[in-house]
Write a structure and sequence with these properties.
Blueprint lengths: L2 E5 L10 H9 L3 E4 L18 H14 L5 E6 L2 H11 L4 E7 L10 H4 L4 H4 L8 E2 L12 E2 H5 L13 E7 L3 E3 L3 H8 L5 E5 L5 H4 L1 H13 L17 E3 L2
Parallel strand pairs: 1-2, 1-3, 3-4, 4-7, 7-9
Antiparallel strand pairs: 5-6, 8-10
């Protein structure tokens, strides 16, 4: 039995993982689908001081409180920043990392630096000056996202290759070039990663939950990633239509 800790992307809450979480539980695993500070049902805690460190601490607190020592951290989109920070801060509580069409930062990176094409959206903060609005095509439950979490640079000090597995799942169906295309191309050449490409829009959890469950369950059965040929599930296409 594994402990899956699921971390949503911008503007979303733990509810975005409902279909995925239910299937994982049916396979006998524990699942913690988190809503980060200031978002969704926790929107009343959104202030100008909520930043990336706040969200990293949210997850660390769950790992400590629930006494989780072998977490499979799963981050979607912005959640990749959080996954990376948590794994660096409490590596002794983490088994493996899974990035779902997500940013994969190095020390000193931020969403602002990694996804420059979205800066206009980030700065559309309205009257508050610190709340990035959800986009029209998002789930109606989506709420504004704290700007500081997108601007803050992450601080990483450890070796990210220390974990048993690192998996990246790339969504191929974007209008034009995906903002994660360069990450996908870089990681598929890195033998310490296992990279998958799925024919899906950005919201993989909604569109292809069955495929994600297969990937997650397979990752539990695989040994530590050797420095050799990568495994892939799904399409290798890199372009498509926007979510």
């Amino acid at each position: 039995m594994a402990d899956f800790v699921l971390i949503p992307g911008m503007c979303h809450g733990g509810w975005c993982f409902d279909a995925l979480a239910e299937q994982l539980r049916q396979h006998g695993h524990r699942v913690h689908a988190l809503t980060l500070t200031g978002l969704s049902e926790r929107a009343d805690r959104l202030t100008s001081t909520v930043n990336l460190d706040t969200h990293i601490q949210d997850v660390v607190d769950v790992l400590v409180t629930e006494q989780i020592e072998d977490a499979v951290l799963v981050g979607h989109s912005y959640g990749g920043m959080v996954v990376s920070g948590v794994a660096d801060r409490v590596p002794e509580r983490v088994d493996s990392l899974v990035y779902l069409d997500a940013v994969v930062p190095d020390d000193g990176d931020s969403c602002w630096s990694l996804v420059p094409d979205e800066r206009e959206w980030y700065l559309d903060v309205g009257e508050t000056g610190y709340a990035v609005p959800s986009l029209p095509f998002f789930d109606p439950r989506a709420t504004a996202h704290p700007l500081a979490s997108l601007l803050q640079r992450i601080r990483l000090t450890g070796d990210a290759g220390r974990f048993r597995r690192r998996e990246y799942v790339y969504a191929t169906l974007w209008d034009g070039r995906s903002p994660f295309a360069s990450t996908y191309q870089r990681l598929r050449e890195d033998p310490t990663w296992t990279v998958h490409a799925l024919e899906s829009r950005h919201n993989l959890m909604r569109d292809v939950p069955d495929d994600l469950v297969k990937i997650l369950l397979q990752s539990l059965e695989e040994p530590a990633r050797p420095a050799g040929r990568q495994e892939r599930i799904g399409s290798d296409e890199a372009e498509g239509s926007r979510p």
